[in-house]
Design brief:
Blueprint (H helix, E strand, L loop, with lengths): L1 H16 L2 H26 L3 H15 L2 H12 L2 H7 L5 H27 L10 H28 L3 H17 L15 H6 L1 H14 L4 H30 L1
Length: 247
């Protein structure tokens, strides 16, 4: 199974690396988003806003990548490529896991470049090497959760419009209702519990703590809970849906 997963992971990465428009969009979008929002809210919140905002932008490589990723998966799963895969002695688990691993590697790579660019307006890691590794580990876990959701939507949606509609608005709303965007206290009181529970908020808090100080254990555990609960459930349902389609 590990060999099968490695082969399918490699296929996913090669396909991404051989699609220049996708590479340009994937790397350019978070950078453009960062430099569009930063001048406005950086002036309102303070000079250290980049320490709050850059981790959210890194996470957005996973969330805003969900609709196009799911659309690509929707097309793949209904193409001759996956029809051929279904006739080969490949387990459903390795097929799904291979695609998930490929997407997670892509997300981490794009996030790493985004964080590197964020050093221009002043983002810095201040806690040493191990927290930096933890920073990208949390990103990978969060990316795996987002990819599992995308896989499930791609396998169960009846058409491409449903794929886009199921993910586009929720990911945008989650971004703007995140504590990585503005502090929780800046939101109206009635919406603050939603902001605090938002997985983008818990992951943002974890990354902020790892990068420049602050609470780490609780937000990391909250992010893991989201990843295991939502990501694990969606992953299992995606494997089940794939097996059903392959039957």
């Amino acid at each position: 199974m590990m060999t099968e997963m490695a082969l399918l992971t490699g296929r996913s990465i090669k396909r991404f690396s051989r699609t220049p428009p996708l590479i340009i969009i994937s790397f350019a979008f978070p950078v453009v988003l960062m430099f569009t929002i930063l001048p406005v809210y950086g002036g309102l919140i303070g000079d250290d806003y980049i320490q709050r905002f850059a981790p959210l932008i890194a996470l957005s490589t996973a969330t805003f990548g969900m609709p196009p990723s799911a659309l690509g998966l929707f097309t793949d799963f209904r193409s001759g490529i996956f029809t051929r895969l279904r006739t080969m002695p490949l387990s459903a688990g390795s097929t799904i896991t291979g695609r998930l691993a490929g997407d997670v590697l892509r997300i981490v790579a794009v996030a790493a470049v985004t964080i590197l660019v964020a050093h221009i307006p002043g983002f810095r890691f201040t806690n040493g090497v191990l927290p930096v590794l933890g920073f990208f580990a949390v990103l990978a876990v969060f990316g795996a959760m987002c990819t599992a959701v995308s896989l499930l939507i791609a396998l169960t949606a009846p058409d491409a419009d449903t794929v886009q509609g199921s993910l586009g608005a929720p990911t945008t709303l989650a971004f703007f209702l995140s504590s990585g965007f503005i502090p929780v206290e800046a939101y109206p009181g009635w919406i603050q519990p939603v902001v605090q529970a938002n997985p983008l908020s818990t992951a943002s808090n974890a990354l902020i703590g790892l990068a420049s100080g602050g609470p780490v254990l609780v937000p990391v555990l909250q992010t893991l809970a989201w990843a295991v609960g939502l990501g694990g459930l969606c992953g299992l349902l995606a494997v089940r849906a794939y097996r059903k389609q392959s039957a």
